[in-house]
Amino acid sequence: MKISEVEKGVILDVKVNPRSSKNEISGFIEGVLKIKITASPVEGAANRECIKFLAKTFNISPSSVSVIKGETSRQKRILIEGVSRDSLLEMIPKGKS
Questions:
Q1: Fewer CB atoms < 10 Å away: N or C end of the chain?
Q2: What is the pLDDT of residue 97?
Q3: Are strands 32-36 and 9-17 parallel, antiparallel or unpaired?
Q4: Closest of 64, 78, 67 to residue 32, by C-alpha
């Protein structure tokens, strides 16, 4: 899985599928976390929804989640501040790894 620990927290690679029927983590593909988001990729709506969804999933503040690469791509690199790699792995819903 592509999760790196950095000084501020962890960086993970995700693939976002916008315009889905519901927000959910749908598993891993080649070590990349696959996320379905209901918002469309217009004017950053999918990025904002992805940040809110990850914050809720990992029970952290949305301000602790940011897109650091891939603002306009489905492939993104996300920084999640204030968590460790191990704690993040524990928080991913079971059955999705």
A1: C
A2: 47
A3: parallel
A4: 78
Q: Give every CB contact of residue 68 below 8 A, 6+ residues apart in sequence.
A: 11, 77, 78, 79
Is 18 among the domain residues? yes
Domain of residue 35 covers 3-91
pLDDT tens for the chain, 97 residues long, are 678 999 999 999 999 999 999 999 998 888 899 999 999 999 999 999 999 999 999 899 999 999 999 999 999 999 999 999 998 888 887 655 4
Whether residue 71 is contained in a domain is answered as: yes
Would you state the pLDDT for residue 25? 93
Residue tagged 């897109």 (tokens): 67
CB-based burial, 38-50: b 16+ in 10 Å, e otherwise: ebebeeeebbebb
Q: How far is CA 1 from CA 43, 46, 52, 72, in A?
A: 30, 23, 22, 23
Q: Which single residue is written with the structure tokens 């217009």?
A: 42
